């Protein structure tokens, strides 16, 4: 029997091709062919590198054959990095199946990721490529895929809550994702969740065949130069250990490569769409039209190098093609108007940088130098919300009246100490407080106004405070609540009871919880701001004004606390500590800020602010008795330009001079 030599060649080639190992597929080449976007403007379309060019190099580092064991991304919001992490799980499922762990900081976030992103991503991937790698749910007994585990041939994807010990124990994994790692907290037993997470990879550490992908928006900056201080942002700490790669673009004018920085952003507040970025060398104004192609043609440049440096990437809103200079400018203007909390959000969510709280108050003598010439007891122009805060002591009551404007600027109207006993709510200092807070305060337009809300501290003399507030309208018994994350003012709790021990439904005294942590952070952040008195072009949002009659004691009490962080038994404790014995006017200001929030300082719309201005700042409308200067000042330029020339009502020749000339 004979065979054609070509048949041997064909059969041999086919067999060689079947048994020859296929080269590993790089992650960046796998993405555009397999991942279908499940949200955003490109929903239902395949992932495209031109929409997020800054993700390509990150994907290359996450590829199966890349030698690194760790990849860090310090990112802003809505940059596509989270989708990249989920897609990496599917890539490994197909190309390097093994056990994987995807850890997030809460059970709610875990469920949202599974139902909102991971499972839809799996379904879209299977439909597009007709691949059934992930097994569907089999039963409720835990066999097969579940909400917390995705089983496939060769391993599983474990979805873990990083703030629960059991989720980070009893598993051996080769690949892992630390999502939103900056929000991971110390566990109740004092253990660090990152250490427990890293322990899942012990079996692969000797041969260094594991890979961990950490990503998160930053949080707080401890101020430590190396980033190793207690409480420092976790993702920033990892980024500082990396080679620190930043996305560089070329200036279309001079061609120099540079990183887009917030310091070079030139914002037109009246016309945000005209915002541009100034080149750091030639000072060319890079427009939005020039930015888009520059970002697409940009590249990462490492800042540091060394054998112990892993790939680390900084991804901010300036790199995102879903954002624009206009959108960044609008965010900055909006966030700045929210004080210290807004500044933190802008740094974290837009700039992808950790934020150092300006908790330490400025020097009280520097604040005294900023005193202004408006009279005490008068509401300056711009003060649309008038409130007061009071701090009760055994020997008297401290009280401050504050006016707030639309952009959160504040004016001290007056601050007084009302001396007297406070054990009887109908005598002593309470009568002085009633007289002081119920008086009429004139504003800059001569209109008499009353305080709209009075906050009185109920931490001391609780019964007397509750009774006094129950008897006086627009009075609120407030109680300071420590700790981060507590709202400025929360729903009240009823304190009065009937003879049977049940809470009164009507006529009951109520206590309003006040989140002092965030309010103090906002106040001290605003005190650091400089305005017209310091040579600036204008007073920034949140700027604090003080009249010239305030003494040194007031400023010492206003700056009597500082922010401190302590590591106790493995847990980080943050608190406001006293640097002086008396801080009563600081408490008064905090309670006044809470009252302003209660009246809508943060939630009033532009139309509502306009209504307040129309109510308290009436226009100077001229009438028949107004002098000419008022009429001209009130007239618009068009009215002045079209005003007719003054004419005489007399007929020609009717004057005495004309009659004298016509005499005979």
UniProtKB/TrEMBL annotation:
Residues 310-603 form the Terminase large subunit GpA endonuclease domain. Residues 47-299 form the Phage terminase large subunit GpA ATPase domain. Transmembrane segments: none annotated. It comes from the Bacteria. Residues 481-500, 638-664 are annotated as: Disordered. Residues 638-647 have a biased composition (Low complexity). Pfam families: GpA_ATPase, GpA_nuclease. This is Phage terminase large subunit family protein. It comes from Ciceribacter sichuanensis. The lineage of its organism: Bacteria, Pseudomonadati, Pseudomonadota, Alphaproteobacteria, Hyphomicrobiales.
